[in-house]
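Limitations

Structures in this collection are predictions, not experimental determinations, and the ligand pose is part of the prediction. Treat each record accordingly. The example that follows, with dioxothiomolybdenum(VI) ion as the small molecule, is included so readers can see exactly what is and is not provided: the inputs are given verbatim, and the output is the predicted complex.
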Amino acid sequence: MTTTTTTAAPTRSVGTGHTRVEGRDKVTGAARYAGEIPFADLAHGWLVLSTVARGRITALDTEPVLAMPGVLAVLDHRNAPRVDTDYIGLLGTRPDPTCAAFQHDRVPYLGWPVALVVAETSEQAREAAESLVVHYEQEPHDVDFTGDHPEAYPLDNHGPAVTGKGDLDTELAASAVVVDAEYSTPEEHHNMMEPHAATARWEDGRLELVDSNQGATWVVGELAKLFSLDPASVRVRSEHVGGGFGSKGVRVHQVTAVMAATVLQRPVRVVLTRRQMFSLAGYRSPTTQRLRLGADADGRLRALEHSSLSVTSTVHEFIESSAGASRVMYDADAHHTVNRVVRLDVPTPTWMRAPGEAPGSFALESAFDELAEKCGLDPIELRLRNEPDRGPVSGLPFAGRNLTACFREGARRFGWADRDPRPRQRRDGRWLLGTGTAAASFPAGAAPSTAAVTAHPDGTYTVKISAADIGTGARTALTLVAADALHTTPDRVHVRIGDSDFGPAMIAGGSMGTRSWSWAVTAAADELRDRLALGAEIPAEGITVRSDTTAAIGALSAAERHSYGAQFAEVAVDVATGEVRVRRMLGIFAAGRIVNPLTARGQFTGGMIWGISMALHEEAVRDRASGGHVGADLAGYHVATNADVPSVEADWIEDHDPSDPVGIKGIGEIGIVGAAAAVANAVWHATGVRHRALPIRPDRVIEEGAPGA
Ligand code: MOS
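Predicted complex:
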């Protein structure tokens, strides 16, 4: 049957709230995740991790383990397949050797993979893995990030490590008001609900993986290079993903699953445990940041210096580019930023939701609050007076910078006008009350992607794109975008994602996923609609149009493109117990066209809640003696729970960028930016005490006390 496609007025699905198209499957359990998809003849791998923080493996007593029930193999550095790590990966960086398991006998940190035990069942593999005795020649280690690190060096992954203009000393000397303060943030972990999990198997000469990741073609590219395979002979599928936040790229679980599947010639599954994720999944480096701000009496900045120090492992360079926040937020006559890193005997950190911006905005936006206090200016007014005309470092024009509008709307809704700027003025019984604010920005980038859209004879459509829905609602967003582009309704559009065979596409990362994929889907859908408008008969196999946005994205004008936000928090502090409660929080964002208000609100509030968690709870503590974590689990690593976030509201303003053909900006990360600073600034307002070290734990609140308490 052939039906003509309607080309009447476009429907308006984008901008109206839709529940997730896969929501029913997820709540009923029909949606399968990587670690639970059944495979015939499946074997299970269990990783054995090092128990020393530095040294060499001298022996592995594998024989008794191989004799245990169900055990099929033990892979370690003596017998594992060799991999190639000498390449530059998709994201412009070398692979972290942590994922290239079992290539040598060196141990660079505690929790380093030293063996994989493979058995018929997961329980047998675990039992055997826990029985494996590994002998080490231990060496002294250093995991201590606090303190001086003269050996630290400037580094940046995507941009210069150092930026500078103007003479800092001159401008600081000429400033009426100076803030010079050091801020610190601890080691933080993503530890999403679904652990990293992969099943690998060889099928007719093709390597197939079912995996949990943020980009199927990304993982294909890395695995192909590691194992010297033709990328066309590798297929990765990732249908549902229970969170990623930056940690779900190529990691040791996929690589060891491939190794074992190759050796055993049967499907092998490797799932990380919660505890293993603390050393194998990446994390956010702790930071020490120094901010020097100098301003005229009216608050106009003359000097801004932002220096950040973070940690990396001894085997791979990764930097938390916290000083980057200052490169796009505020200008000054003398403007200097540097990101430095120190190598310690710890696992390699990685991208974690708003890498750089999250800790960077805590330091910068806290320092701005301190400057406002010293200038006797309202913190919002100080920011408005320092709105730059062009990118402070890039010199490029801003393609829409709606920060001011966010503050105006946020201040109105939060009731900021009535605020007494003096600290320690409001009480509610034993609680001291305060409010705080902070600005947020996050880059609105886009990356080339390909998509295919098919019109079927029955009037429905299929969209295929190698996108990843890591819990963001991307699948639903793309359904709405495609429906509008095709002038149809969402129920007629079937979006298929998470399969590398759909062709290259941007990863779910950098807040660029939905923006990049929507671009490709729209391009294909537009062309398909044009072809259908010519009255083409739709054959049984449908009519398919493919798109590739490489050229279109390359043609985008050079500009500073960002999302913006204004964060507001009200806290109550009990200085006797040290308890800090966030009573309410409001974020107003300018983030382009909002595709699905329902899931978008969840993205924003999710980020804000993480900001609260960062401000008050999260901290991975490393034991200097062992070099490992104290409490590497979700009992020891505290995150905000429902009781910690009674009222968190997010909303947005009109934000139109005429130079951008899609008009969608990313919303995955902006919500966390500035959130911790807003809470910390509110704690100062409540108590009169500045907390420059996160998290603002009860013991720190008690220790710092409160003036006149
Ligand atoms: Mo994100 S930290 O770009 O997955």
